[in-house]
Amino acid sequence: MNPFAPPFGNPPFQSVLAATGGPFGATSRYYQLPTRSFITPDGNMIVYVSRRFLPQPSQFALLQNYSVRQGDRLDNLTATFLGDPEQFWRIADANAAMIPDDLTATVGSTLRITLPQGIPGPK
After folding, report:
1. Could you give the CA distance from residue 73 to residue 88 in angstroms, rounded to a whole number?
2. pLDDT digits (tens, 9 = 90+) for 5-53
3. How would DSSP label each residue in 62-75?
4. Same domain, 32 and 75
């Protein structure tokens, strides 16, 4: 079975994507990214999510710094600081990390724990 075959090219499916913010939930880093389509030489339409660029760390209001300890895992740190281990990408974004696991690879490195992008910090 071709995972890219219709209904992806089906106009009603495209309408659902537009109405719901895409195929990802509201807490996903890909939420509301536009979809694009590509027509293969044999006429099949492949729908994909547009490229996501990392935001600048300066766009995040700092709550605190955290010093990485032996055995730290990003999902556990995210559960501790943000309440949801699946939001690890928020800490990765705030620290300009393309590879999230790199953030906990070096004991003693400092992680920025921030508010979500665009939310102003305490005054």
Report:
1. 10
2. 444 445 555 555 555 556 778 888 888 788 888 899 999 898 888 888 8
3. EEEEEE--TT--HH
4. no
